[in-house]
Each structure stands twice: as structure tokens, then as C-alpha cells.
Amino acid sequence: MTAQIIDASDLDELRRVGQELREGATVIAQTDTNYGVFASPFSRIACSRLYDMKKRDGAKPLTLFVSAPRDWATWAFAPESADMNALVAAFWPGPLNVILRRKPVVPDWVTSGQDTVSVVHNLSAPINLLSVFAGLPLAATSANISGTVSTGLVDFALAAEHLGGDSDYLIRSTTAPDSTMSSTIVSLVGGASIIRQGDVGADALRVVVPSLV
Fold first, then answer.
1. Where would I find the H helices in 68-201?
2. What is the distance between the alpha carbons of residues 10 and 153, in angstroms, rounded to a whole number?
């Protein structure tokens, strides 16, 4: 393994790693579901490294992690802003990714050239601190080789095995999330729809957004 292991409770080290994210570093860390691998969305080279180390299809976009609920509006438009505001109030921070229209400031290499972007605000303290220390949202995908995990979540051991030899840093958390599945994904583009079911269930979502299909 070549990744430097950092304790998630070490704020000085997280601050240093956050600053290095700005310079193109890649970092593996615990989200509210899987361990993910992160980079600055504004570094084309760093984002390309995520695709290369994961062997990810270039047509599949990355997810944008923001450090505060309101920050989604900096990077995306919500065609139905009332629905987005309701989802944010009910489920963020948490394992709910929302697909929205991207703003021009989001680079093409994050979205694979699509006009949409998936945005999430997690409870995970390491992710939010890294984003704050970097002064950036973070582009990410799960920290495993594509196509190798069909059930369960990517934990520390699997992330280290799959991508620890390629990433610059690996943030080790001492507590696991409560989630049992990957994040729920909802799209608010062209109507409200569930793209992937996770621990945030359809019934709970429809209480907040009744038009969701």
C-alpha cells in the first residue's frame, strides 16, 4: 500500500490533507455509506486518476460532496426548488444523492459532459472537514474497482485492498455508518424520480415529495 494512512480524528492532518486536495491529491475516506475516493473537482488530472485507479467507465459521472446543505445551490440548479429544499430539510446530512442541472462552474470531466450533476451532503465528519479545509466541494466515487462489489458496502479493508496502492491518502475512521446500502439517488430533472433505492426509502421520500415516481 502506498497511501498514507491518516486517523480521522487528527484535525491537523485532515487540514493538511484538505490543502493537498487543492493541489491534486486523491483521498480515500468514509462517507455515510461506502468508503469513497475523493479529488478536487477542478483538477482534471486528479479526477482522471479516480477513473484510472477505479477502472471506471468514463461515461459515468462523479458525485459532488458539499460541506453544508445550502452549498448545493452554488453548483447546481433545481428545476423544482421547493422539492429540493424539502429533500434537503428532511434528509441532509445523510445518504441521499440528488441529481440536478449543473451550473457552468462544474467542469465537464466531473459530469462526463452531461448537463446534470449528482450532489450530496453527508453526515461524515472527515468528508465535511476535508471539504472545508480544501475550500472546495469534493468529487468522488466509491473506493473499489468497478464491477467488483454487487452487495454490501465498501469498508476500510476493501478500499485499502482495491485502491490503497494508488491513492495518496487513506483516512481511517473508527466508527462505521448506520447505512446498510449505497446511497439513495433521486433525480429532480424532468420530474422527480427515484434512480436507486437505498436506506432512505421511497415511502419516506414521497412524504416530502408526493410527486416522486
1. 72-75, 81-91, 108-111, 125-134, 156-163
2. 25
114: Cβ contacts below 8 Å, ≥ 6 apart: 61, 102
pLDDT tens digits for range 45-100: 999 999 999 999 999 999 999 999 999 999 999 987 899 999 999 999 999 999 99
The x, y and z cell numbers of residue 154, run together, are 465498501
Q: What is the pTM of this model?
A: 0.95
Q: Which grid cell is 148?
A: 467488483
Q: 121-148 burial string, b = 16+ CB within 10 Å, else e?
A: bbebbbbbbbbebbebbbbbbbbbeeee
Task: Give the 3-state secondary structure of residue 21.
Answer: helix
Which domains are present in the chain?
Answer: 4-208 (3.90.870.10)
Question: E strand or H helix at 54, and its extent?
Answer: helix 44-54
Residue whose C-alpha is closest to residue 49's, from 74, 188, 13, 40? 40
Residues 6+ apart with CB under 8 A from 20: 168, 169
